[in-house]
Write a structure and sequence with these properties.
- By secondary structure, the chain is an alpha+beta fold.
- The protein folds into 2 domains: about 230 residues, Zn peptidases (Aminopeptidase, 3-Layer(aba) Sandwich); about 90 residues, Peptidase M42, domain 2 (Elongation Factor Tu (Ef-tu), domain 3), CATH 2.40.30.40.
- The protein is built from 9 helices and 17 strands.
- An 8-stranded mixed sheet has the order 1-2-12-3-13-16-14-15, with helices on both faces. A 6-stranded antiparallel barrel has the order 4-5-8-7-6-9.
- Helix 1 packs across helix 5 and helix 7 packs across helix 9.
Length: about 325
């Protein structure tokens, strides 16, 4: 699973530009039938050893946060907007890669030329640009046009038992689903690799209207603030404490019975689990649960430090716990 995750993270694909990620996932499916919908999501209706009483859909999004070129200056610098939520504080000085392979650096005014007040002021996106090394506007436009997208440059590393990379949100969920598909399932299960989650939960709604599941399980990465200077009550979730279950976030109030079932299953099977201690963020459940005639939803997330940056950090044991809980919960709901 972790080899697959590394390969997925090293592929570039922001919202609306997931084609390379999609091609990789399809290559892993082999002879397993699949469908690609009009927006580009992959739907795999996997036959199990037994027929399910309820239709369960497991979902994870293929896209990652990124950047889109909006304007090229006379000096050949590229102005941009973000695709998904990225703070300017994690942008400056970072390498990015455009769809065609062009590399650049996100630049800003150097500290030596900044006034004392500027040094104390939070950096804003309008003060940033992407430098691809072009001499002027003409040369820059020969490499990058307005509308072209970029992502943080791939830089996958392992630090002890932790993984550091761009796009762990949510190639982690995709890797877990590929492992489940390759190992086979007990009950008929639908797997959805969705598009455009970071741009506003767009692809999952179309998939859900097509699949019409009774239950959904969204596999995600969620914010872990277990770092220095953050009070225990504000940490949201903690690395090393297992899979994260949500009772509510900014887009979903999760089904109470499914939430409790997941907690009970984790205890029964000895799977490490924790409850997200903040109503924050959101994921594809936000559109899935209110699609069609309504879907009972659950979210299982890996606790991720430095999310939506070039250096997301996850612990391997937490990812494994997400995998184990997803498998157990999907079987339970399929036969409920």
């Amino acid at each position: 699973m972790f080899t697959i995750l590394k390969e997925l993270c090293n592929i570039n694909g922001t919202s609306g530009r997931e084609h390379k990620v999609r091609e990789y996932i399809i290559s892993r499916l082999g002879d397993i039938p699949y469908t690609v919908d009009a927006l580009g999501s992959i739907i795999v209706e996997l036959k199990g050893k037994e027929k399910a009483k309820n239709k369960v859909m497991i979902a994870a999004h293929m896209d990652e946060v990124g950047f889109i070129a909006t304007y090229v200056t006379e000096d050949g610098l590229i102005k941009f907007d973000t695709v998904g939520g990225i703070l300017p504080a994690v942008m400056s000085g970072r390498k990015v890669c455009f769809e065609n392979g062009t590399f650049g650096v996100i630049g800003s005014k150097p500290v030596h030329l900044s006034s004392e007040s500027e040094k104390k002021t939070l950096l804003t996106e309008d003060k940033l640009f992407i430098d691809i090394g072009a001499r002027d506007k003409k040369e820059a436009l020969s490499c990058v046009m307005p509308g072209d997208t970029a992502v943080f440059a791939p830089d996958y590393e392992e630090i002890g038992d932790k993984i550091v990379s761009k796009a762990l949100d949510d190639r982690t969920g995709c890797a877990i689903m590929l492992k489940m598909i390759e190992e086979g399932v007990k009950y008929d299960t639908v797997f959805a690799f969705t598009v455009q989650e970071e741009a506003g939960l767009r692809g999952a709604g179309c998939v859900t209207n097509r699949v019409c599941p009774d239950y959904s399980i969204v596999l995600e990465a969620t914010t872990a603030s277990d770092i220095a200077g953050v009070a225990d009550s504000s940490r949201v979730c903690v690395q090393g404490e297992g899979a994260v279950l949500s009772f509510m976030d900014n887009s979903t109030i999760y089904d109470k019975d499914v939430f409790r079932t997941a907690l009970s299953l984790a205890e029964e099977k000895g799977i490490k689990v924790q409850v997200k201690t903040a109503v924050a963020g959101g994921n594809d459940s936000g559109i899935i649960h209110k699609s069609g005639f309504g879907v009972k939803a659950a979210a299982i997330s890996a606790p991720c430090r430095y999310i939506h940056s070039q250096s997301n950090m996850l612990k391997k044991s937490d990812i494994t716990a997400c995998y184990e809980l997803a498998r157990a919960l999907s079987e339970k709901l399929s036969d409920a």
